[in-house]
Specification:
Helix content: 25-40%
Shape: flat
CATH class of the largest domain: Alpha Beta
Number of domains: 3
Strand content: 15-25%
Structural class: alpha/beta
CATH topology of the largest domain: Cobalt-precorrin-4 Transmethylase, domain 1
Number of helices: 12
Number of strands: 12
Length: 318
């Protein structure tokens, strides 16, 4: 589709595919929507259901109340746990209080939780590759006893690591990391600890990998890259980093209003993608904003098709 105002310079907008919502995010949002439909407002949500202000605000308008901790949830009201996962202590506390709760943890994050539990049962110490303070990391550490897992954030960290038993280690990873960075860290772990046990399959989720690969495809064909996503969204931040490492200046924006037009300049081609928590409506919003200043030609750059769907909790579909 093209717009053709004669006084505006031409601009090719290379739109990444896939982009935007992944199956885990789609599932989490539907859980909140169905919980409101079945229980009525308010339905409480511990932390942001996903890292996107537009999504959170829309759900709040429907009757979701976002809180930091279970202490903020009144007795008798349902609560939803975010897609990033929670420590075991959180559902245990909800049960102790008699709260009805729904777990919107992404099934791929839950898979990592189960892997962690099995590795601890075999007596291995886990080296967990991830970013300190991220909710997914906090949730995964909360699946195992204190001291059973060590956070690894960089190759340099591997070099300086001291562990009690170098022959009895395993590693797992956060699902939303840079594919390339993680591969370097994993290689460093294998080099330093040849007997370390890794997961059977890839922990970095399919959506993260696919979106980074799509950015690699288009970043080399454009002068600027716009990534729609929240500043606290790990997978969105990684998309901008991927473009920058290929030499394409990239900016993370939450909405079209955040486009820095001076920074954007007068390119002939830009790339556009959206993190896994960003809805398609924001992609259209950005394209519409570009079309007010440029004669826009949209080109969707096909990559890996996605047809993953995760089942909803039984209590919501009965």
């Amino acid at each position: 589709m093209s717009s053709t105002p004669p006084d505006r310079p031409p601009l090719d907008v290379l739109i990444a595919a896939p982009r935007g919502f992944c199956a885990g995010v789609d599932r989490a949002i539907k859980i909140v929507e169905l919980a409101i439909e079945q229980h009525g407002a308010p339905v409480y949500v511990r932390h942001e259901i996903v890292h996107n202000r537009f999504v959170v605000d829309r759900l709040a308008g429907m009757g979701a109340v976002f809180v930091d901790e279970l202490d903020d949830v009144p007795d008798g009201r349902p609560v939803v746990f975010s897609a990033h996962g929670v420590p075991k202590s959180v559902p245990a506390e909800a049960q102790d209080r008699g709260l009805d709760y729904l777990d919107a943890t992404c099934p791929l994050v839950s898979k990592v939780h189960r892997q962690a539990g099995r590795l601890i049962e075999t007596g291995r110490h886990i080296l967990f590759i991830g970013h300190a303070g991220h909710p997914e990391v906090i949730g995964t550490f909360g699946q195992v006893p204190a001291g059973a897992m060590t956070l690894i954030e960089s190759v340099e960290h591997v070099a300086g690591l001291h562990v009690a038993d170098e022959t009895n280690l395993a590693f797992l990873t956060q699902t939303t990391l840079s594919v390339d960075d993680t591969a370097e860290i994993v290689a460093a772990l294998h080099a330093r600890f040849p007997t370390i046990k890794g997961p059977r399959g890839e922990d970095i989720c399919y959506a993260t990998s696919n979106r980074q690969a799509a950015v690699k495809q288009i970043a080399v064909q454009c002068q600027r890259m716009l990534v729609i996503g929240a500043p606290n969204s790990s997978n969105s931040l990684r998309l901008a980093e991927v473009a920058q490492r290929l030499g394409t200046p990239a900016r993370l924006i939450q909405r079209a209003a955040e486009i820095d037009w001076e920074w954007l300049g007068a390119p002939t081609a830009i790339g556009l993608t959206a993190g896994a928590s960003a809805p398609e409506v924001l992609v259209r919003e950005v394209i519409d904003a570009l079309a007010k200043r440029f004669t826009v030609t949209e080109r969707e750059m096909a990559h890996v098709p996605e047809d993953m769907v995760f089942k909803l909790p039984r209590e919501l579909v009965a």
